[in-house]
Amino acid sequence: MSNFSANNNQKEDVVFDKFKNQLEKNGLIIQSIDEDGFIYVNIGETDLKVSLENVRRNYERDFDERHITNLVEVIVQHSFNSEDWEQVKDKIYLQFVPNDFEFENIINEKVTNEFSKVFALNLNNGFSFITNDDLSDWKIDSVELEKQADFNLGMLLDKVKIEFEDIENHKLGMVNINEVSLKSSCLFSSKMKNLVENNIGFPFYAVIPVSDFCYIFAEEDFEYFSQRLGSVVLDEYNNSGYPITTEILRFSEAGVEAIGKY
Fold it and tell me: Which superkingdom (predicted)?
């Protein structure tokens, strides 16, 4: 599997030191660092490719060491990960990354001109992206992977509440779920239509600047909300280590399309 995202900041810093120390406490070592700043951690017969860029951005924003600890936990979990499909399939979900991400062998599907969806194992609220090699190990194809991700999201939606705030007689919806990093993913479940059509109707619109933040609203409220959400969307997008898109998305029977962007 391949983890996380693009280029690393070259300077020596506290995040790298803490990351290295925590890895070593768990019996893992950094095998090498390439010229682009990617870190290779030796796990069994393979090297896991990791970037600290997103963790560094989030740590510099709030100085919360859990950003580093969570990444290390994902890597540790990965080192013990079974290659048996039956044991991992209930952890398969969707995540989203900008299209300038270096996908390499990671299974991905373009959603809009700005971002793509990837499949990921959810490990302790961290994500390990799924590659074509994983499908070979699990002896499944991409169709089965897609079906399993949708099944898991459907199970998740049974626990989801969509809370609507009334703003000048316009409804703004928010996804309320304990697994906050899957908020945006919930919108892509085939069950989403049933969840919203009796309230705001279907098709509907949404913004997903980051994975743990999304707003949804009705077609009839497009003009009202599209003119009012720009600042909060840009703020979330610019201040996260894991940005997705500043586009306004339309969800319909035909799929997902970008209507405009902030």
Answer: Bacteria
Q: Long-range contacts made by residues 88-91, C-beta under 8 angstroms, separation at least 24? A: 88/121, 88/138, 89/148, 89/152, 90/152, 91/121, 91/122, 91/123, 91/152
Nearest C-alpha neighbor of 42 from the set 8, 3, 75: 75
Confidence bin at 8 (pLDDT 50/70/90): very low
3-class state of residue 32 by DSSP: strand
How far is the C-alpha of 138 from the C-alpha of 231, rounded, in Å? Answer: 44
Task: Report which of 126, 124, 125, 146 is spatially closest to residue 135, judged by C-alpha positions.
Answer: 146
Q: Which residue has the tokens 């510099």?
A: 60
CB 1 within 8 A of CB 9: no
**For 97, what's the count of Cα atoms within 13 Å in the CB-facing half-sphere?**
20
Whether 218 and 200 have beta carbons less than 8 Å apart is answered as yes
Give start and end residues of each alpha helix (H) in 46-191. Answer: 53-62, 66-79, 85-88, 132-138, 142-157, 183-186
* Under 8 Å between Cβ of 156 and 92: no
